[in-house]
């Protein structure tokens, strides 16, 4: 079981790098193992090159068991400690999603209420206030958004998605960049127009029935 989880983590590193969501050693991924440890991508190693022996292992209290985990591990540990159902986390740098937080710093969430599939598949996509990279604030700033939100933009930094398996977390990151790109293109064509309040309410009710997973 653990081997399959670790290989899924490595495969996802390559998947996201190939999609342009991770450059060089940017971002970090992790999985919760059956023995309670957290396996995480190492600091300073390009995601396209990470090997099984490079992975780091931590306890939930942050104690390092093996390897050199990412300096941004506070985000991962905050989620795993606050959300028992979180089994995998992806933090990547989707360019268009980051650009929204740079150009529109007043936004508290991605303005995706014109896209029915986003409401159904992900719900709201909040923008988490900026924290300095590598600080404990990276984890603390996430807490108000947990466990209600699985997919988030980290202001001026990147995207973050947690899931009950690695495919959910990776799929959420892919969806985030696709949505951000659609909205950016809509802005260049005159601005994205929202659905009606009644339509949004109906979609959110259906989302509640579908459950919290990122689809």
Describe this structure in words.
By secondary structure, this protein is an alpha+beta fold. It has one domain: Class II aldolase/adducin N-terminal domain (L-fuculose-1-phosphate Aldolase, 3-Layer(aba) Sandwich). The protein is 39% helix and 14% strand. The protein is built from 7 helices and 8 strands; from the N terminus they run αββββαβααβαββαα. An 8-stranded mixed beta sheet has the order 4-3-2-1-5-8-7-6, sandwiched between helices. A hairpin with a 5-residue loop joins strand 1 and strand 2. Helix 1 packs parallel to helix 6. The chain is globular. The chain starts with a helix and ends in a 5-residue tail after the last helix. 40% of the residues are buried. The model has no long low-confidence stretch (mean pLDDT 95).
Summarize the topology:
Blueprint: H1 2-18, E1 28-32, E2 38-40, E3 56-58, E4 64-66, H2 73-82, E5 88-92, H3 95-103, H4 116-122, E6 127-128, H5 137-140, E7 151-154, E8 158-163, H6 166-188, H7 197-210
Parallel strand pairs: 6-7
Antiparallel strand pairs: 1-2, 1-5, 2-3, 3-4, 5-8, 7-8
Task: Sum up the structure in keywords.
single chain, 215 residues, alpha+beta, L-fuculose-1-phosphate Aldolase, 8 strands, 39% helix, 14% strand
